[in-house]
Structures are given as structure tokens and as C-alpha cells.
Write a structure and sequence with these properties.
7-stranded mixed sheet, 3-stranded antiparallel sheet, alpha/beta, 11% strand
Length: 494
């Protein structure tokens, strides 16, 4: 077995990480330098540099052109998104926040909404579709939906409004029929009137005094800033949150991703819990609690101090580790946890499972799957130590599931335990020799220590993908398609 060391990091990577932080605001501390190195390696291949060093010299010692800057942005940020991503948030928006806003802004008859990190447009267009469903109530209202992103490529795609089936995977079929027209084999054009509801702009949130483009100095009623704060340093996170709050009207709402809730800590914000979602509301000066929202069924808070009774209410049984007959409750718990995980409501998954589901339930058939969901949720929230413990608990009772070893490898790699990650990748392939992402991940891990193994694993990837359609979405690949991975694998192999 080849010894796996940390990837060879060129000395200039530290300087590049500082440049990226200063110009773009993205945080790449020492533990992420290997990722930054891989981005430079891949970009040097695509730009026909014989070696990454000349590219690094150009990036560091020449004025950084907009083209080069955008090439870095595209590779350093994850733009994958889809319509109605995290349905619980959009349910809260539709059933609670919009009715409250419509009532409160009735005299002005206008709503100002901003998506601060809009990527390819699915999020602001989802908001536009929800408002279109309330068209009768909003007749003669002025609706302003602004959307911004740092990446010019994704903004260009957003303005065109053409999406694949993958972007529509969480959208109800009746919504798809109403708002999308099929224009190609796997291409769907968003309705023109929805596209015209949203205006897109380039904006760098790392700028100290950024303003909302297109708002002419007005404050927003609702600000979405999801899945971007995780890229920033702790210092920049505080700066961005403070600025967002200053751009929000009193009584307005700030929505961040579940994994980013821990970084929102501003005295002007009140935390408001809804079923399946936690959001923040800006205080009025005289306000001591949240602005009253329209009372609708299910508008309540699941208190952690009463989680046992909440679970009893959900399952119909008392999930007590001293009463084995009640373990059937796990059978009811699992589908709900899976549903929340698909919605990316990771904190709600953990609240549902919590510590009561422990090793005393190891004999139950649902236990390994529940621990896997716990591990994945923790990992997605950046809590890697706890994620490693949870996946280890799953492996104790299911030693033949290749995905558990792949998940263990991914967590170990994120923690910087490269040798451990390599062992887990190989165990994955021992159980499933056709696990494409394990072949590819192991190839990228070994690329500085074992070239023959790298070539072998990349050829396995290529051989398996050549028979698939380019738009096939690969399992466990974060939305990556067969065609894109095949392109990357061929580039690395060459």
C-alpha cells in the first residue's frame, strides 16, 4: 500500500490564499490549501500551462484581469443549486412571511427582496414564482426582486433562464408545467414574465460597504444570503452580517442556510423558529419580540427541552432505550429524517434524531441509516469530529455498505487525515469496484505520490463514464454530471 502524504503544496499557495481573501473574500486557511492547489493545477491544464508555477507567478505578480479573476471564482465556489431548494424555507416564506409582509406593507403596496448570492438564478426565480401564485393579492403592487453574485458566468446563465431537468428535481410537476417550456432534449425555458420579475447584478460581498444594486438606496423587506457565508473567514462573516442587517428594514427578514445559522449573531436580529426552518427578523426600535406573523396551522416552535414528548407525538410511541418494544418508532422516525435531509434541513435532522437514538438501538434495522443521516448532516454543517463518530457508529452495525466507507473517507480527507482517507477509499472499492467517485477521489488524493495508481483509477472512471449520457447525474457526486467528470478525468490523465 502506498504511503499517502498531504498533497505537495507550492510555496506561493499561501500568498495566493491571501490574494483570494483580499480580492474575493473567500477564506482558504492552511487546512484548505490542498484544495486551492488542486484548483491551480486544473486551471493550469485548461490554460495549456506546462506547469502550475508560471500560472501562479502570473496570478501573483501581474495585475489580476477580470477574466483570470472570474476563472478563479468559477472554480473556488460551488454554484450548484436548484429550484425550491430547502422546501421548508420556501414553505415558511409562502405561508408565514409573505402574508405578514403583504399585510404590513398594504399602504405602500411594494415589496423589495434581495438574493445576495443568487448563483444561476434558481433561488430568486423560485421567489418570483411564489409571488406569482399570489398575483391576485398583489395586483398593482410594485415587486422588486434583485439578485447578485460575484461569478459573471452564473449571472449570464441566470439571465437566460434555461435550465436542465436536474435544476427542476424538487419542483412539483404542476409548477413545472405552469412555468417551464421544454426547448430541447434536457433544456427548459422559464416563463418570460417570471424572468422579467428578477434583475441580476454582479456584486462582491467582501467589499466593506457594499450596497444592494438596483434598490436606489431603499432598504429590503427580505434578504436571502444562503450558502455563501460558509466561504468567508469568521471576521468577514461578522462584517457581512452587520452590513446585511443595515440594509434591512425594521421588521424585515434575513434568511441564511441551515449550516450558517451559527454565524448570525447580531443584536438587531431576533431568531424566529418555524416548523422545519429558523429565520431572523430585524427589530423595530421599540420592539421586544418578533413581529407578529399571520397565525397558520403548524406555526410553533419545537423546544429542545421537550424533544422526547415531541418525538412521542410524532411517532405515537415513547422512544425509550429501556423499552425495546418501542423501537418500532425508529421505523417512523427514518422517513421523516430522510425527508428533512433531502430538503437540506440538516439542523432539523439532528433535532429529530438527537442523542436519544444511541448505540442501545444497534440491533434495529433502521439504526445504520439513521446514523448515516446524522453523519452526513453533521459533515454538511462542518462538524467533522462529530460526523466521524456518527459514521463509525453506523459502520459498527453495517460493515458491507460501500457508501459508509466512502463517507468516512470524505470526512477524513476534510480533516486532513489523508492516509486514513486512502484506506477508506480502498475499502469502498473492495466492496464495490464500480464506485466511480471513490476511483476519482482516490486518484486525486494519490496524484502526488503514486502516478501509476492515479492513472489506473482515472482509466476506471473513464471506462465507466464513456457508456453514460453526458447529462447523467452521478451518485454521491454533489450534482456532478457524467460528461463533466469525464472531461475532468481525461484532462487529469493527459
Amino acid at each position: 500500500m502506498s504511503y499517502v502524504a498531504a498533497p505537495v503544496i507550492l510555496p506561493q499557495i499561501e500568498e495566493l490564499s491571501q490574494l483570494v481573501a483580499d480580492r474575493i473574500g473567500l477564506d482558504f486557511p492552511r487546512r484548505k490549501w490542498d484544495m486551492l492547489q488542486r484548483v491551480v493545477d486544473e486551471l493550469s491544464v485548461e490554460l495549456n500551462f506546462s506547469d502550475p508555477r508560471p500560472l501562479l507567478e502570473e496570478l501573483l505578480n501581474s495585475p489580476l484581469s477580470e477574466d483570470r479573476l472570474n476563472q478563479l471564482i468559477v472554480r473556488l465556489t460551488v454554484g450548484e443549486t436548484y429550484f425550491l431548494r430547502d422546501k421548508s424555507v420556501f414553505t415558511v416564506l409562502q405561508d408565514h412571511i409573505f402574508p405578514a409582509m403583504i399585510e404590513q406593507r398594504a399602504s405602500e403596496r411594494r415589496l423589495d427582496i434581495w438574493c445576495a448570492a443568487s448563483s444561476t438564478g434558481e433561488e430568486p426565480y423560485s421567489i418570483a414564482m411564489l409571488l406569482d401564485e399570489k398575483a391576485e393579492q398583489l395586483n398593482d403592487w410594485q415587486i422588486n426582486i434583485g439578485a447578485s453574485d460575484l461569478n459573471l458566468d452564473v449571472l449570464d446563465k441566470a439571465r437566460k433562464g434555461v435550465y436542465s431537468q436536474w435544476s427542476l428535481r424538487a419542483t412539483p410537476e404542476d409548477i413545472n408545467r405552469k412555468y417551464f417550456t421544454k426547448i430541447g432534449k434536457n433544456q427548459f425555458l422559464l416563463a418570460r414574465h417570471i424572468r422579467e420579475m428578477v434583475s441580476f447584478y454582479q456584486l462582491n460581498l467582501a467589499e466593506e460597504k457594499f450596497v444592494m444594486p438596483g434598490f436606489s438606496g431603499r432598504a429590503a423587506d427580505i434578504i436571502f444570503c444562503r450558502n455563501v457565508l460558509i466561504y468567508f473567514s469568521a471576521e468577514l462573516q461578522v462584517q457581512v452580517i452587520k452590513r446585511l442587517v443595515s440594509l434591512l428594514r425594521p421588521g424585515g427578514w434575513l434568511l441564511v442556510a441551515p449550516s450558517e445559522l451559527g454565524v448570525v449573531n447580531d443584536p438587531e436580529l431576533i431568531t424566529v423558529r418555524f416548523p422545519g426552518a429558523i429565520v431572523h427578523q430585524k427589530r423595530d426600535r421599540l420592539q421586544t419580540g418578533p413581529v407578529k406573523v399571520k397565525s397558520l396551522p403548524g406555526n410553533h416552535e419545537l423546544l429542545r427541552s421537550d424533544r422526547r414528548s415531541s418525538l412521542r407525538k410524532f411517532t405515537g410511541t415513547d422512544l425509550s432505550k429501556n423499552n425495546k418494544t418501542t423501537c418500532k418508532a425508529l421505523n417512523k422516525l427514518l422517513p421523516q429524517a430522510e425527508k428533512l435531509f433531502i430538503q437540506e434541513s440538516y439542523r432539523e435532522v439532528l433535532d429529530l434524531i438527537f442523542d436519544l437514538v444511541d448505540s442501545s438501538f444497534e440491533d434495529e434495522p433502521e439504526y445504520a441509516r439513521i446514523m448515516t443521516l446524522k453523519a452526513q448532516s453533521l459533515a454538511n454543517m462542518g462538524e467533522l469530529e462529530a460526523a466521524a463518530v456518527a459514521v463509525e457508529m453506523a459502520l459498527k452495525v453495517d460493515k458491507v455498505d460501500p457508501f459508509l466507507y466512502y463517507l468516512s473517507a470524505t470526512i477524513a480527507r476534510e480533516r486532513g487525515d489523508y492516509a486514513v482517507a486512502a484506506v477508506f477509499y480502498k475499502q469502498t472499492l473492495f466492496l464495490d469496484a464500480d464506485f466511480v467517485m471513490a476511483h476519482f477521489s482516490l486518484a486525486t488524493l494519490l496524484r502526488d505520490t503514486d502516478r501509476k495508481a492515479v492513472a489506473r483509477h482515472l482509466r476506471n472512471v473513464i471506462n465507466q463514464l464513456e457508456s453514460l449520457k453526458d447529462d447523467t447525474v452521478l451518485p454521491h457526486a454533489e450534482g456532478l454530471t457524467s460528461g463533466r467528470l469525464l472531461e475532468i478525468a481525461r484532462s487529469l490523465l493527459s
